[in-house]
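Hypothesis: this fold can be encoded by more than one sequence.
Test: take the structure tokens below, design a sequence, compare later.
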């Protein structure tokens, strides 16, 4: 099985960033000069994805516009001789990569969002990327690392990282035979357990590669944590039918669903930006107490 499709669940309301997200999608909030969703899309494309499926809501038109052509802007840049900016704008979506959009009519959880894309996935494996999790994988992105595992196992793969025990209620937590192994086989997975009930210190982050069998299981999954249809619960059921691997990826994850994580990501990416790094580093000294 070859991986060519990816789902981007972007229908959330972004309430933790109000009022900034009242009229603008949180996925369009910039990290330096690119929106969060573009970083996720670039990661997917670098891993070989060619069909991008966005699960949106009525307030997310800006995402569709961002990945569409803007003839007026391009004509203006051509007229003004701004070739460098024109290349940036035209390069947002490379040739050979397509976008599709499907609406999630009401917020019913990540599992429901993935299920909304069933008809566009059909009987193929697919990736799921959450833009809130910005992952700097260095030479090899998180999804590229996962694809390497998938090509060997031909079964589902989820990305995990070590988390503080006190934070288990924020994550899906996996049960594996050896939590020190970089690639481990799942024995179980629980959504947002209390610390004393967590099976390990490995939490799931926003990268998944799933086989199409997950759809039939999602259709049978009842509401779980938070009254939502949880992807975690369907993955727990998937373990009865296939091996699921947990990959402790190499790289740094920024939780841009939180204000602190968003600010940390902005600083980190500004410090390695080719146009800003040195000047920004000097300016930061004014804020160091």
């Amino acid at each position: 099985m070859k991986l060519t499709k990816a789902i981007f669940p972007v229908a959330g309301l972004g309430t933790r960033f109000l009022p900034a997200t009242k009229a603008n999608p949180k996925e369009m909030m910039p990290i330096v000069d690119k929106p969060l969703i573009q970083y996720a899309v670039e990661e997917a494309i670098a891993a070989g994805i060619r069909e991008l499926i966005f699960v949106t809501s009525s307030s997310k038109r800006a995402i569709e516009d961002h990945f569409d052509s803007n003839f007026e802007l391009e004509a203006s840049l051509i007229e003004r001789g701004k070739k460098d900016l024109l290349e940036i704008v035209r390069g947002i979506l490379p040739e050979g990569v397509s976008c599709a959009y499907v609406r999630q009519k009401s917020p019913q959880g990540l599992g429901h969002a993935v299920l909304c894309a069933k008809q566009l996935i059909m009987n193929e494996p697919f990736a799921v990327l959450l833009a809130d999790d910005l992952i700097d994988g260095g030479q090899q992105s998180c999804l590229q690392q996962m694809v390497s595992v998938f090509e060997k196992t031909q079964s589902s793969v989820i990305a995990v990282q070590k988390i503080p025990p006190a934070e288990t209620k924020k994550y899906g937590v996996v049960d594996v035979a050896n939590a020190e192994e970089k690639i481990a086989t799942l024995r179980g997975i629980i959504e947002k357990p209390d610390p004393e009930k967590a099976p390990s210190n490995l939490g799931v982050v926003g990268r998944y590669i799933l086989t199409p069998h997950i759809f039939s299981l999602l259709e049978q999954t009842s509401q779980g944590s938070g009254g939502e249809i949880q992807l975690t619960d369907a993955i727990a059921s998937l373990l009865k039918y296939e091996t699921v691997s947990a990959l402790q990826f190499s790289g740094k994850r920024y939780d841009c669903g939180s204000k602190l994580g968003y600010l940390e990501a902005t600083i980190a990416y500004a410090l390695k930006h080719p146009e800003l790094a040195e000047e920004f580093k000097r300016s930061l000294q004014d804020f160091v107490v």
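The mean pLDDT is 92. Residues 79 and 129 are 37 Å apart (CA to CA).
Hypothesis status: open.
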